[in-house]
Design brief:
Distance between the termini of chain A: 44 Å
Radius of gyration of chain B: 20 Å
Number of strands of chain A: 11
Structural class of chain A: alpha/beta
Number of helices of chain B: 14
Number of strands of chain B: 0
Distance between the termini of chain B: 26 Å
Number of helices of chain A: 9
CATH topology of chain B: ABC transporter involved in vitamin B12 uptake, BtuC
CATH topology of chain A: Rossmann fold
CATH superfamily of chain A: P-loop containing nucleotide triphosphate hydrolases
Shape of chain A: globular
Oligomer: heterodimer
Shape of chain B: globular
CATH architecture of chain B: Orthogonal Bundle
Helix content of chain B: over 70%
CATH class of chain A: Alpha Beta
Largest sheet of chain A: 6 strands, mixed
Strand order of the largest sheet of chain A: 5-6-7-3-8-9
Helix content of chain A: 25-40%
Largest interface: A-B, 34 and 23 residues
Chain lengths: 252, 329
């Protein structure tokens, strides 16, 4: 089943093509890491797919009505915003808005989805706490739980693990991988290449608005690609805990 | 406090203050005779006081309080800024300008409702200008900037009218009107402003869900399937209708829309949608309480409601900032 399909997507800002003729499809059960240097167009690509930006080309999500789109894809923006001192459970429950009629309160299945999202992100102990009083990393996890509570086949996340401690980076990546195992899909912009290589089922490498490589991590993170796009030397190497990708040094 | 308990206590407070507003006044009537005159009285002075002076005053106090509290809570929720207030979109300034022009030109004296009608005309021009300037799709920042520009322009024109005013009577009339008051309003004011305010409340209540979602920012809100464009339109029209009508009949009454949402926010767990009705009820209570106070504090000096509100509101606001400064640090 195709959850996301982009055909010849182009986004222009002024005369510059920020996204240049990108086509891709994402099916069920994939954890796709969207990688590329700063300014490559990762955020723009996802926002255009979500119809948050004007774009040319076709995208299955853009053809949906906004209310249908909110049940097809959840969006976790990079900007971590919790504007008011509300409690954690309230923030997570905002993810249920697409399923609730106007003015209705949470029903049993909404509560179940909220509880599930809270436990998936290990936030049980925080449920009653005021979200704005949590640390930045804890807030990030609350917002991921919010997106999970939306319970959509596809989750798009913009740098979801930036600013998390190592343990929570790992647990978040594992949670996304679990989602993919359950038949859902995740498209996440990532900067941590080793973690992306380890957990993603597929990587899409973009640079200057174009797809450079798309495939399994080992096929995408080749020495040439990594040197060309990121300007660093990196390689898969045997570690004590199996084969892992390592970033070694900047290319002179 | 559970939402239900809060709703009940705010409602009881409001009903109590509404009754107090009916029963307190210079005529010094007893409770029993007041109520009899209000309900059953016909053509005697007592009935006139109750039905034509105190009843419209109490109703207008409640309606205006709801309008200001609701509009303040909605503006703060939409802009995600606790410093926002209903006057920010420039409608109260332009409504005041309309009324001031009516006073200056003498139109106000030509027929009974000329003053509030000119105020409403000013509000309509103000809201058309803001929709034109801020555009249908712009960000919340363009809305604030357009509102500031319109407020400044309306303020400057009001000052110009005062500046060029030919006689001191007109000037003092204008200045006193602008201080805001509920004294000497009639049922026809209620019938003029009430329906417009009700429509405004309805429009504002359409934004409730989006205001909750906006806690997560504009991008996340759109991705939840909610339309920011529609919300913004309902918000601007709703605030304009309720606050424009309120200003047209009562003059400028500040601080209610700013302070009441602050007072209520901790009681509703800071949820923007719940804050709407809590601030509506709280605003009505606050305006009624202040309007009772102006009758009790200096009964013979015609203390203006807007003046008292600012005198109480500003220190209260300072206290709230002092108390919550940690949160916003």
């Amino acid at each position: 089943m195709t959850l996301l399909s982009l055909e010849h997507m182009t986004v222009t800002r002024g005369a510059r093509r920020v996204i240049d003729d990108v086509s891709l499809t994402i099916g069920a059960g994939e954890f796709v890491g969207l990688i590329g240097p700063n300014g490559a167009g990762k955020t723009t690509l996802m926002r255009a797919a979500l119809s948050l930006l004007p774009a040319k080309g076709t995208c299955n999500l853009r053809q949906l009505k906004p209310s249908e789109r909110a049940r097809a894809v959840a969006w976790l923006p990079q900007q971590r915003e919790i504007a008011w001192p509300v409690d954690v459970e309230t923030v997570v429950a905002l993810g249920r808005i697409p399923y609730l009629p106007r003015g209705a309160s949470l029903r049993d299945d909404d509560r179940a989805a909220v509880g599930h999202a809270v436990s998936r992100m290990g936030l049980e102990a925080f449920a009653g706490r005021i979200a704005t009083q949590l640390s930045g990393g804890e807030q990030a996890r609350v917002l991921i739980a919010r997106a999970l509570a939306q319970d959509t086949p596809l989750l798009m996340a913009d740098e979801p693990i930036a600013g998390l401690d190592p343990a929570h980076q790992l647990s978040t990546m594992r949670a996304f991988a679990d989602l993919a195992r359950d038949g859902r899909s995740v498209l996440a912009a990532l900067h941590d290449l080793p973690l992306a290589a380890r957990y993603c089922t597929r990587l899409i490498l973009i640079d200057a608005g174009r797809i450079v490589a798309d495939g399994p991590p080992r096929a995408v993170l080749t020495e040439e690609n990594v040197a060309e796009v990121f300007g660093v030397r990196g390689a898969f190497a045997e570690t004590g805990a199996g084969v892992a990708f390592q970033v070694l040094e900047a290319v002179p | 406090m559970t939402p239900r308990a809060l709703f009940t206590s705010l409602s009881v407070l409001l009903v109590g203050l509404f009754c107090a507003s009916l029963l307190i006044g210079p005529a010094g009537l007893g409770i029993g005779e007041s109520l009899t005159a209000l309900i059953a009285g016909e053509d005697d002075p007592l009935a006139l006081v109750m039905q034509e002076i105190r009843l419209p005053r109490a109703i207008l106090g409640a309606l205006i309080g709801v309008s200001l509290g609701l509009a303040g809570a909605a503006m703060q929720g939409y802009l995600r800024n606790p410093l926002a207030e209903p006057g920010l979109i420039g409608v109260s300034g332009s409504a005041a300008l309309g009324a001031v022009l009516a006073l200056q030109t003498g139109v106000a004296a030509s027929f009974a409702l000329a003053l509030p009608l000119s105020g409403l005309a000013g509000a309509v021009i103000g809201v058309l200008l803001i929709l034109m300037l801020a555009g249908p799709r712009g960000s919340s920042m363009t809305l604030i900037l357009a509102g500031i520009a319109i407020s400044a322009l309306a303020g400057a024109l009001t000052a110009l009218v005062l500046n060029l005013s030919p006689n001191p009577f007109a000037t003092s009339e204008i200045v006193f009107w602008m201080m805001g008051s509920l004294a000497d309003r009639s049922m026809s004011h209620v019938w003029l402003a009430g329906p417009i305010m009700l429509v405004g409340w309805g429009m504002i209540s359409l934004t409730a869900r989006t205001l909750d979602a906006l806690t997560l920012g504009e991008d996340a809100t759109s991705a939840l399937g909610l339309s920011l464009t529609a919300t913004r339109l309902w918000l601007v029209l709703g605030v304009a209708a309720s606050v424009g009508a309120a200003t047209s009949v009562a003059g400028a009454i500040g601080f209610v829309g700013l302070v009441v949402p602050h007072l209520m926010r901790p009681l509703v767990g800071a949820r923007p949608a719940r804050l709407l009705w809590a601030s509506a009820l709280g605003g009505a209570s606050m305006v009624l309480a202040a309007d009772i106070a102006v009758r009790l504090v200096l009964p013979d000096r015609d203390l203006k409601l807007g003046v008292l509100m600012a005198l109480v509101g500003a220190p209260l606001f300072l206290h709230l900032i002092y108390k919550t400064r940690r949160e916003f640090a």
